[in-house]
């Protein structure tokens, strides 16, 4: 039997994994490790616990009464406590249909990326959307590209492969 399985069996047999719910009070980022300070429901203070984040995703949840977390004591030791998950204000959580995902900014539920089987929506009311560092950007659309904006600015050359149509408008 491997050491991992023996450790798992010991933890299971002794009930040595404890999980507690807490409110996040502060977030501290030091190099690549994020630590959170939280207060448990039993008013226990959890000071600068490492926040484990999923691969490819990181966020700074901030703090406050509506930001909650789940802390786990590894091998039942409070000296080996980690923060497993951070939950935002559940009143703002969107309903997500099967096969969909939403990523939104903590503290501002109006900014989000919504991925559905039918397409992707980026919602950024009153904000700028910027693509940085790309050598080139390609849009492949089978039916067309529409820009609903009062002005388009091009800094550089415009190369057109195809016809340019002049649309009539009341001002011209």
The SSE order reads HEEEEEEEE
**Strand order of the biggest β-sheet:** 1-2-3-5-4
Rg over CA atoms = 24 Å
Q: Which class do the helix and strand fractions yield?
A: mainly beta
Q: Taking all residues together, what is the mean pLDDT? A: 81
Straight-line distance between termini: 82 Å
Q: Output the number of helix runs.
A: 1
Main sheet record: 5 strands, mixed, barrel
What portion of the residues fall into strands of 2 or more residues?
Answer: 25-35%
Uncertain stretches of 5 or more adjacent residues: none
Counting DSSP E segments of at least 2 residues, the number of strands comes to: 8
Helical residues, percent: under 10%
- Give the CA-based shape: elongated
Keywords:
single chain, 172 residues, mainly beta, 3-stranded antiparallel β-sheet, 1 helix
Structure description:
The structure is a single chain. The chain is mainly beta and 172 residues long. Among the domains are: 3-87; 92-123, no CATH class. It is built from one helix and eight strands; from the N terminus they run αββββββββ. It has one helix spanning 3-14, and strands at residues 18-30, 33-40, 45-51, 68-73, 81-87, 101-105, 108-116, 119-123. The strands form two sheets. The chain has a five-stranded mixed β-barrel. A three-stranded antiparallel beta sheet has the order 6-7-8, with no helix packed on it. A hairpin with a 4-residue loop joins β2 (33-40) and β3. The radius of gyration is 24 Å and the shape is elongated. 9% of the residues are buried.
């Amino acid at each position: 039997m491997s050491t991992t399985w023996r450790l798992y069996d010991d933890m299971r047999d002794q009930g040595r994994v404890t999980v507690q719910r807490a409110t996040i009070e502060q977030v501290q980022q030091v190099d690549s490790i994020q630590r959170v300070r939280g207060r448990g429901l039993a008013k226990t203070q959890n000071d600068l616990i490492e926040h484990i984040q999923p691969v490819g995703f990181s966020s700074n949840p901030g703090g406050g009464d509506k930001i909650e977390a789940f802390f786990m004591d590894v091998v039942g030791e409070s000296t080996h406590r980690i923060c497993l998950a951070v939950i935002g204000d559940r009143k703002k959580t969107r309903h997500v249909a099967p096969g969909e995902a939403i990523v939104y900014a903590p503290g501002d539920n109006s900014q989000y990326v919504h991925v559905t089987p039918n397409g992707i929506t980026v919602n950024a009311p009153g904000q700028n959307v910027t693509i940085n560092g790309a050598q080139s950007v390609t849009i492949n659309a089978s039916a067309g590209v529409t820009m609903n904006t009062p002005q388009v600015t091009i800094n550089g050359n415009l190369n057109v492969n195809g016809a340019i149509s002049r649309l009539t408008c009341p001002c011209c």
